[in-house]
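I hope you will forgive my troubling you with a question about protein structure. Could you please explain, in whatever detail you think fit, how the structure tokens follow from the sequence? Thank you for your consideration; the sequence and its tokens are set out here.
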Amino acid sequence: MKIVIVTGMSGAGKSTALNVLEDEGYYCVDNMPIELIPKFAELAGGQKKERSDIALGIDIRNGDALGELDSVLNELSVRHYNYKILFLDSSDEVLVKRYKETRRTHPLAKDDRVDKAIEQERSQMSFLKERADYILDTSHMLTRELKQELEKIFVKDGNYNNLFVTVLSFGFKYGIPADADLVFDVRFLPNPYYIEELKKLTGNDKPIQDYVLGCEAARTFLEKAVDLIMFLLPNYVQEGKNSLVIAIGCTGGKHRSVTLANAIADRLKKTEYGCKVDHRDIDKDSKRKM
């Protein structure tokens, strides 16, 4: 029997995680009283079913009882239960935005501001993050991407290094992404914008890809950039980083940066790291002309 403790910051995706696990045959219980966990595990383990895996949602709503969780988890270990802790996290800015969009009330907010409640929650949940087997930062994830990462961990039993990489293309004329951890400037490459038949295409189109990667300097940059990134990733994991944004910029964010962001992401998707590609400014020129 497998036990997954699904926990983390409010608004980071715990409900989605429980839904995914339920779809995969886990018996899921959200906001279970902490003192009942050992008894529930005992009952679930005694069921004569082909699958008796369980997933338990534990979060700040458990209140003062969170202080008992350490001892409960230690008890599960003594009883040799196979449990894993999944901690879902997100940046404070993204969490505030999600609460504003959904107009839901943070469990700790009451009459205070959401950002203050998030700060308080992060402090109270820190001990669980330290104990977590898997940490997923959902700041840059769509729901389907979160589902894919969860399936990789709990369904396909894939390797997971607690690091999700976003490769982001952008245009310098629209500003450098504020959340970028690494920024690469590819404006040194020949610009397809000045070729009439290529001007309206993007780096998602093969003619642009052929043009950009047909340049020896672009191919050399790609190899050296990927080599540097592959060196950095395990070191970021060792540091405890959970989310990495690699920004690739050209003038308008439509041709060169898109092509190379796609190429880098394709390489990273073949590794054990979670990865997505995002093109921030790819449509901005066309929107400005409308």
